[in-house]
Amino acid sequence: MGPLAYSAEYLPEDEPLLAARANAADLGGTEPVSPAIGAALRFLACAAGARTAVEIGTGCGSSGIWLLRGMRPGSTLTSVDTEPEYQRVARKTFTQAGFAQNQARLILGRALDVLPRLSDGAYDMVFCDADPRDYLDYLSAALRLLRTGGVVAFNNALLAGASGDGEAQDALALDLASQVRADERLVPVLLPLGDGLLAAIKRTE
User: Which residues in the chain come in under a pLDDT of 50?
Assistant: First the structure.
């Protein structure tokens, strides 16, 4: 087994995560995060000492499990999605993984409509796994929502167009990565996991 394959399987999915992946396959239209991405999310949530986090794109609950497993006991994940069936399945998935019902606050709606209603500086982590064409707007929202020392992360940061040609996808990815890198409020890293995980720590207001 090569080093990349070994790292991808270093922390394999357990039964709740496998169940979430199976649910996603049954429903279609949503792709769970890979075990490597999930492990990175858990690591980042733990490193940030996260008690409150926002997830944009609930899916079937896979990334939410990883995030909650990295957050402190009794923490709350606020997860936003436009698909009620995804959130119904995710709620069941969180329960199967052993989390109390009040640890996952699921909000149905467009993230760009929901995020303005969330409190400034009240969150330790923001994870974006939705339409990458909105990622720049999510970056602006994350900078408002995060406390100093909080973490923002973007999945599929090297595949930044959900539709359209490859050049448009590349331009979106480069624009996001460039803005994060140039923002003096952020300390970024671009990890070559899956289709790219771009993460950054907010170090100043």
Answer: 161-164
Task: Give burial (CB, 10 Å; 0-12/13-18/19+) of 86.
Answer: buried
Q: Whose CA is closest to 157, among 181, 111, 192?
A: 192
pLDDT digits 0-9 by tens, 126-149: 999 998 889 999 999 999 999 999
Give the domain 3-202 fold: Rossmann fold (3.40.50)
pLDDT in tens, 22-35: 999 998 878 899 99
